[in-house]
Amino acid sequence: MRKAAAAAVAAAAAVGVALLARRQMREAKRWGRADAVLRGLEERSAAPPARLRQVADAMAVEMHAGLASEGGSKLGMIISYVDSLPSGQEKGLFYALDLGGTNFRVLRVQLGGKEGRVVKQECDEISIPAHLMTGTSQELFDFIAAALAKFVASEGEDFHLLEGRQRELGFTFSFPVKQSSIASGTLIKWTKGFSIDETVSSCYGVNSYTSHRLILYS
């Protein structure tokens, strides 16, 4: 009886293993077919390198045309007047201000040149009160300048100026601006919930105004 029971158990186990193996084979075939379909779609959708180069070249032509003359391209281009990029050799204490939404960020960074890179950095994010987003430019930029001044005042001893150098400030103004130089321009329109009409129609433009206000604290 024991032998018969053992044989029955072994037979049942073999049947179970066979069923499991059959199920796995069916699933493998099903996944194999799905994988083949996906690979086919990938191959048909992939752009050949030559076509990608054509697209890149066409975009470069349109960008140059847009920068050469207003309305000269299908792409909307605005001159930034940035004619050089960081070299990696920069040293000293730098501040950055990024305004582009309901919050703005101020950053303090100590650069150590090619060897030191970013020695130390600190960042603070400040919420802009809703009423300032639809108030006056004077109120908005006074608020930003005051927040920046407070951040500068919290500078610790770990940050230091190089001899003969001063703190430098970069300002990222993430709104469409028609610039007349790297530090001045006229706001084209507000986005991201801001609506201060007097600033858009202002003759001095947003960038020149904010640069004047913020440099007081640099």
TrEMBL record:
Pfam families the UniProt entry points to:
Hexokinase_1
InterPro entries per record: ATPase_NBD, Hexokinase, Hexokinase_N
**Ranges in a coiled coil:** none
Top-rank taxon of the source lineage equals Eukaryota
- Transferase as a keyword of this entry, yes or no, is yes
Catalytic activity field: a D-hexose + ATP = a D-hexose 6-phosphate + ADP + H(+); D-fructose + ATP = D-fructose 6-phosphate + ADP + H(+); D-glucose + ATP = D-glucose 6-phosphate + ADP + H(+)
GO CC annotations on file: cytosol; mitochondrion
Q: Some GO term, biological process aspect, for this entry: which one?
A: glycolytic process
What is this enzyme's EC?
2.7.1.-
**The keyword Kinase is assigned to this record:** yes
Q: In which pathway does it act?
A: Carbohydrate degradation; glycolysis; D-glyceraldehyde 3-phosphate and glycerone phosphate from D-glucose: step 1/4; Carbohydrate metabolism; hexose metabolism
Hexokinase N-terminal domain ranges (all copies): 40-200
Keyword line: ATP-binding, Glycolysis, Kinase, Nucleotide-binding, Transferase
One GO MF term: D-glucose binding
The record's family statement is: Belongs to the hexokinase family.
Query: What protein name applies here?
Result: Phosphotransferase
**Native source species:** Triticum urartu (Red wild einkorn)
**Gene, per the UniProt record:** LOC125526483
